[in-house]
Amino acid sequence: MIDNIFIFDNVIHLYDLSQQNVRTDRSDAQQSRDHALEETSRLRWPLPENEGFDWGRRWGVEDMYDLVFKQAPTDMAMAQVVPMFDWFKDWYAPVKTQHAMAAAYPERVMLCGGVDPMYQGLSAALDQIDYQVKELGAKSLKFYNGHVRIDECWRCDDEKIAYPMYERARQAGIRVIQFHKGNPHGLQNMEFLSPVDLQAPMRDFPDMDFIVHHFALPYFDEMVSITARFPNVYLSLAGYMTFHRIAPRRVQHHLGRLLQVGGAHKLLWGSEAALAGGPRPYLDAFMKFSIPDDLRSGYGYPQMTLDIKRAILGENFARLMNVDIDAKKQQLCA
Amino acid sequence: MPATVDLAELQRRIASLNVLIRSHAGEIELANVSAEGVVTVRYTGMCAGCDYRPVTTAGTVEPALLDVTGVSKVTVLGAMVSDEALMRIKSTLQGSGAEERAVRLVRRMESEGERR
Q: From start to end of A130-286, where are the E strands?
């Protein structure tokens, strides 16, 4: 907690970027893994403890607990599977490591499973949904519909491929599903990463909530419009505060615009640890964050008040996941 | 101690307001009423996501809802502007009679509805 504010991190990933996990049957796998490591090294806060650290590892439970809960004032987090099979044998962030984290710290960590119909087919993906929810206790599911190979991409509004997964998730008791949008991996076709294909499922599954990650950048305007119009869409910051060190003005514009038309109740704190580094410097930056006078006057953006920060840092996601914050605070303090 | 909001009266007022807002192919719906009389609404239809929601709120929705017994404040889910922008909106409305007209129209609709 920070000043008694409950911190519920929507997204941490126990990645497996180890050399052993790199696919040898894809010519671009090694280079892409190396590039991912290089790219994220520039995003991380330049802290002494980050220097020389081996980020290209298979993340373990204690590594992650140290980073998220000891080095940072996080209270709860959701460990999310990244079912990107393009370059990794056991996926980018495997089911096993996310589940291990949730199993080791059930009072603090929820599991978000993940499946992809292009990995072993739709039928296998549906079976996996049942397995991850019923056997592993997944409370949400994450989808990555964009892939490096065009023939492995799928649309989120595909009634034959995507809808059966949402229906199976709903049957299993899942009410919150999540999507990676924007932020391409390499030379993917960008149209699969636009959030526009989420509008039909948001309309057709009104009893489910949709969390979209990364503000779907560079499709920000589309994302703002969708967020403003659909009651069942939420946005995860998902590592977005890494940009604050690089381009604070841009962050003021983005968050200001989202508060203005999307609503503070729709934004969820997400650190994207571990590749973005530990959450602590981002939390500090977020607590100090404000919309400057000229943007409030010139663009009409509202101020990021302490009440709004409290909602974004924990209240909004707790409400979605049915976590009673007062009871959880007492449990964690006991 | 604030007066309790009469939910039936509030819903009737929202229905009356929606006759006006339908001219924009939208409506409002009640999201929450707090014990302190803070009424939260959300825009639907074509008004959902519209950048001009703060203008409609200040000129029509807010005065008509504040006219309901017990309502102390009106907030809108998903739409907020800075204090500076709100002051500009209010100054534009000043002297226009828009707020009074909104209250007059919804009251008239409700009294005509009662007479029928």
A: 140-143, 176-180, 209-213, 233-236, 267-268
- In the predicted structure, residue A195 carries a pLDDT above the cut 90: yes
C-alpha–C-alpha distance, residues A177 and A69, integer Å: 25
3-class DSSP assignment, residue B51: coil
Any idea of the CA torsion for B57, B59, B65, B66, to the nearest 10 degrees?
110
What b/e readout covers A271-298, taking b as 16+ CB neighbours within 10 angstroms? Answer: bbbbbbbbbbbbbebbeeeebeeebbee
pTM given for the model: 0.91
Nearest to A231 among B42, B79, B83 (CB): B42
Q: Does B49 contact A225 at a Cβ distance shorter than 8 Å?
A: yes
The verdict on whether omega for the bond into residue A218 sits within 30 degrees of 0, i.e. cis, is: yes
Phi, psi of A58 (to 5 degrees): -90, 110
Q: Cβ of B81 and A225 within 8 Å?
A: no
- Write phi, then psi, for A141 (nearest 5 degrees): -135, 145
Average the pLDDT over A222-233 and give the result.
95
Residue B49 forms contact with A (CB below 8 Å): yes
pLDDT (tens digit per residue) in A88-106: 999 999 999 999 999 999 9
Q: How many residues does chain A have?
A: 334
Residue A247 CB burial class (10 angstroms; 0-12, 13-18, ≥19): exposed
